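dumping this here before i forget
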Amino acid sequence: MRLETERLVLRPLELDDVDVLADFYADPEVMRYIGPGEAIDHEQSRLSVERMIAGFEAEGYGQLGVVRKEDGAFMGRCGLLFWDTASWTPTRTAAAKGPVETEVGYLLGRDYWGHGYATEAATAVTGWTFEHLSLERLIALIQPGNERSIAVARKLGMKPEGEVEIFGKRATVYAAPNRTFNPPS
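structure:
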């Protein structure tokens, strides 16, 4: 799984990405709406990237590194996350104890916010997902107040569907059925 857009290359994460992602993960504002909403240290970042790489290898798809074509800047990650809906915890599909929901999720460093990169990356991932996987829908789990992510979800044609608790926090489930995906122009 490697995707290209007009401005971006989305490629599998590598251990070499840890240092840059660790800088993003150490920024409290970047992490405000991610997981429990707290910055994490370098070691936790390394473990997170290792889990994402292992998940990608197990599933054949998952989170991708987002690289700007113009200058090769590594801007963050975007791709698929899998949730066991019995407990609303991250999972791999083979390990789930209940039904699995597939989420398009992303995290970009703060310097890359406000330029449409998240929408561009999430659109590419959503298009690939509906073209290559037989999913009925794709979701986004968004904590209240995360207006930027809500805007991306809406651009992807997602609509709020209900609320769940993840990592001890409330999140709205935004969903788009496969048949309605029309990439933003």
